[in-house]
Every structure is written in C-alpha cells, then in structure tokens.
Amino acid sequence: MARKVLVLGEVRDGSLRNVSFEAVAAAKTVAEGGEVVGVLIGGSVNPLGAELVKYGADRVVTVESEKLAQYTPDGYSQALMAVIGEENPEGLILGHTALGKDLAPKIASRLSSGLISDATAVEVAGGNLVFTRPIYSGKAFEKKVVTDGLIFATIRPNNIAPLEKDESRSGDVSSLSVDIKDIRTIIKDVVRKATEGVDLSEAKVVVAGGRGVKSEDGFEPLKELANVLGGAVGASRGACDAEYCDYSLQIGQTGKVVTPDLYIACGISGAIQHLAGMSNSKVIVAINKDPEANIFKVADYGIVGDLFEVVPMLTEEFKKL
Ligand code: FAD
C-alpha cells in the first residue's frame, strides 16, 4: 500500500546529520513505493534539500526563519505541524536523537497519534509494516504494527542503513512560509563542551572508559585509540561521577544510547545501567583486569589485563593497518 511519508532531516553546523539519511531509508520502507518527502527546518536550510534527495527523498519542503535558527520545541513544532497540515502524510519519521525525543511526543500529542519510539528496524512482513524496538533496557525486543492512523516513529541512530548516495537523483525543493510566533524559549547562547572529533551518538567505533581509567589523564590512551580508529570516546557513569570526564560522554540508561559497529569498553565493570546504553553494539570488546567482571558476559571478545598496557598495544597494532 503506497503511502506519503514525511521525514524530518536534522541539521547540525550547516550539515545534515547521518540519522537524516537513515530516516529516509526507513521512510522508503514505510512508504511501500509511495512518496518520501524530506522536511528541513532551520535558519538557512534550503541548500541542504538536494542532499536529502540524493539519499532517496523524492522532494523536500523547507521552513526557514531566523526564529528557527536554533531548535526550540515551540518553533519546530509550529513549523512541522504546518508542513503536516499542507502535506497530510500517512507516515512520519524522525531520528531518535535529543531533538527527536523532545519533538516527537509533542507532535504526537498535537495530532492525537500514537508513536513508536526508538525503532531499530522496520520491515514489511506478512503484509504488515513491522517496527522492532528494544524494551527492558535492551534485554528484549518487541515488534509493533500500526493498525490505524498515522504511522509515526522515531528511529535509533546507527541501526537502519542509509541508501547509497545517488548523485544523479533530482527532486523539487520548495519552501513553506510559516509565521512562527509565541516562542516561549529564547536561546541566548549555545555553550559547547569541548568534545573533539566524531559525534558519540553516530560514531561507528566507540572507545569507552570507566572508573578503571583512574583519572582524567587516564583517558589519554583511550583518545589515541579512538583517533586511530576514527571513533569517539565515551564513558561509564562511574568515570563521569569521579570527574574523569564530562557527563556528555556518559553512556547508559541515564546517558546516551549507542550502537556502533565496534564498542571497546576499558575498565568498565558492566553494570546493568551501563549495558542499557551499549549492549546492542555490533561487536563488543571488553578490557578488564577482573576476569569475573560482568562486562565479559556481553562481550564478543574479552581481554583480561591492565588497560594501561592493553590499550596502547592495540593502538600500535591498529596504526600498522
Ligand atoms: P566500576 O563498577 O567501579 O568498575 C570499574 C572496573 O574497572 C572494574 O571492573 C575493575 O575491575 C576495572 N579496572 C580497574 N582498574 C583497571 C585497569 N587498570 N585495567 C583494566 N580494568 C580495570 N552507569 C553507567 O555507566 N551509565 C548510566 O547511564 C548509569 N545510569 C544509572 C542510573 C541509576 C538510576 C543508577 C542507580 C546507576 C546508574 N549507573 C549508570 C551506575 C552504574 O550502576 C555503575 O555504578 C557504573 O556503571 C559503574 O561504572 P564503572 O563500571 O566505570 O565502575
């Protein structure tokens, strides 16, 4: 059954985040041969429309305004609701990012719609559109089918492969003028944490440190390994609580959820709250000097040893590749 599906692209520092392309791929499945319409909201997003088309959107609608230069739930929900009003879609897909987690429930409540949040897969099976999502902190998966109304979902970054970029694809990029008013939140300034390199939520490789890293300086060998692998550095809450690193690096139930291709846990015991944020990583390597550490139960490869010896050795070996 062909459907019209809207996809919200996410823009950061003037570029589309990878999750935007993954959302387009999910929308293609939901559309079942129908139309996929990208939506871009921001201060100046028109030039990015063509990029979304190259990744599979059939056309793109943009809403530009000075008032939308920074994300605010009021501003973005007005813009997205206006596009939904114009397009009347049968499906709506957002990334399960900080923005998506904030905006999607607001939109769902405005539309009196259900919402499948944090989907890790979508497929057509037995004539139904079936979403898969983790439950019980990633210990089990449930399958969800929408039987009535709007098919509205957020998708977890790094789980649904984007379509291959096709430079020859072209599609209309049109602007919708929306009078954005009554924004209750005014962003005066954005103060960024000095995180270097790759975005943790979207990284293909994560090198994470726990209390076993022992100090702020103890993270240096992990940063080197992450650099060599083109990955990002993450942490357990134990490491954050001990002030070895910033809370923006925390992975777990009360931190970020990551699903990289490779997760290297260094000096992390593997508490259930930490596993909730990383156990769905494709390959898990654990380095811990305690052979009984819980992290080894979820690890594909375990190295029993001192991380300050093992991590530099791994870095040297990877440098040779
Ligand atoms: P520890 O448990 O102290 O483990 C350190 C490990 O390092 C040990 O296994 C030790 O053998 C090993 N080690 C020590 N030295 C070395 C060395 N030189 N080489 C190799 N290995 C070494 N935690 C999270 O991570 N994320 C969350 O989101 C989160 N949310 C929580 C929410 C709630 C409501 C609660 C109650 C807790 C939460 N926690 C969370 C905390 C969690 O329960 C653990 O306390 C925390 O994950 C432990 O961090 P850790 O593994 O770094 O430290």
Automatic annotation (TrEMBL):
Binding residues annotated for FAD, in chain numbering: 211, 236-237, 250-254, 267-274, 288
Entry note: cofactor: Binds 1 FAD per dimer.
Co-factor requirement: FAD
CDD domains tied to this protein: ETF_alpha (cd01715)
Record key words, sorted: Electron transport, FAD, Flavoprotein, Transport
Gene3D superfamilies registered for this protein in UniProt: HUPs, TPP-binding domain
GO-annotated biological processes: fatty acid beta-oxidation using acyl-CoA dehydrogenase
InterPro entries xrefs: DHS-like_NAD/FAD-binding_dom, ETF_a/b_N, ETF_a/FixB, ETF_alpha_N, ETF_asu_C, ETF_asu_C_CS, Rossmann-like_a/b/a_fold
Limits of the Electron transfer flavoprotein alpha/beta-subunit N-terminal domain: 5-195
SUPFAM superfamilies, per database record: Adenine nucleotide alpha hydrolases-like, DHS-like NAD/FAD-binding domain
A GO term, aspect molecular function: electron transfer activity
PANTHER family: ELECTRON TRANSFER FLAVOPROTEIN ALPHA (PTHR43153), ELECTRON TRANSFER FLAVOPROTEIN SUBUNIT ALPHA, MITOCHONDRIAL (PTHR43153:SF1)
Family per record: Belongs to the ETF alpha-subunit/FixB family.
The protein, known as: Electron transfer flavoprotein subunit alpha
Organism, as annotated: Mesobacillus campisalis
